[in-house]
Amino acid sequence: MTFDVAVEGGMKKISDNDQSFSSGIGNLSYLQLGIPIRNKWGVVAGLRPMSKVSYNITRTEQRIFFDTLQMPVLYQYEGSGGVYQAYIGSGFGFGGFSAGFNVGYLFGNIENSTKGIYPLEANVIPSRHSKRTSYQSVFYNLGLQYEIKLNKEVSMVLAASGNFQQKLKARRETLRETMYYDASTDDYGTQDTVAYTSGDRGDVIFPQQLGGGIMFKKIDKWQFGADFTTGSWSKFRNYGEADSTRDAWKLAFGGQFIPNPMALKGYFNRATYRVGGYFGQDYIAIGGSDMPVVAATLGVGLPVRRMMYSNQFSMVNLSFEIGRRGNNNTVLKENFYRIGLGFTLSDRWFIKQKYD
């Protein structure tokens, strides 16, 4: 049995030619349990976030009232929520081939709102338009790999994975309301509901994503490889509407090394050291410009000492990633770094008792 959980945190800085904004990053990376059924056959159950929405943006625009009166108008854009995947999967091997699949349930809510606040002297009632979309749908993905033995200890693995275009189900609520200013709280409250719709069902087109890779490995010593993934995000649709998305691709490469996994002395001889990186084109396009992405990664796997006569083996995984989306030629540029903390626990369960 293998229990695996990880969280991540970090910072990101978004900037344009005039200003910049920094914020924190924090999220669950994944939570999963792997269960061996028999030789070369196992199942997995897990939970992981698919997307997270969190923003609060204000913008001031000069507007003309009563044909001649020019005044500033404040627009506030807010978003919150997220979508998660709960899944079960199975994988099995036959000869040098291995195949697997995940089938799961996608669920969550995303809320977006736009608020328009006018000067009090303009005698224009402020308003807010909000939208809440609930996602509830089944999804799948597939994988296949083939291992070729180059000698007794070294092998090469070829793999492919991905999913074809899927149609996900969603339900949307929309609310339009007028607002009033409350001087006692220095905030705006709801004055009247102008329009409300509930249960507006629709489809979200989740695009095809495909990937392939190659890896070379030596048992309990080292492994390195590369993979290439593509996503047809230009075909993404949300209730029939396109978004600021483009076809994306990414080339990733990396490896790991263990100095001496059987060392009796020197704890760090048994640690796993990892390094890698990736580059490509992000699925988001801003102002009609593609967003190149590039990043470097470092990591280490720290084994937790086994207790004598115990079947348990644990490892703490630490990772660091630093990267950038966009550049000086794009409308926006994002610099980010992430720190990941993972915990893996492997144990033998359901062992038949030999002595009474």
Overview of the molecule:
By secondary structure, the protein is mainly β. The chain has a domain at 8-26 and 150-165 and 212-350. It is built from no helices and 17 strands. It has strands spanning 2-15, 20-38, 41-65, 69-94, 97-117, 127-149, 154-163, 166-182, 187-206, 209-218, 222-231, 237-238, 248-257, 272-286, 289-304, 313-325, 333-346. It has a 14-stranded antiparallel β-barrel. A hairpin with a 3-residue loop joins β3 (41-65) and β4 (69-94). It is elongated and about 85 Å long. The chain starts with a strand and ends in a 10-residue tail after the last strand. The model has no long low-confidence stretch (mean pLDDT 88).
Query: Proportion of β residues?
Result: over 45%
DSSP strand tally: 17
C-alpha termini separation: 25 Å
Residue-averaged pLDDT, rounded? 88
Level of helix content? under 10%
The major pleated sheet works out as:
14 strands, antiparallel, barrel
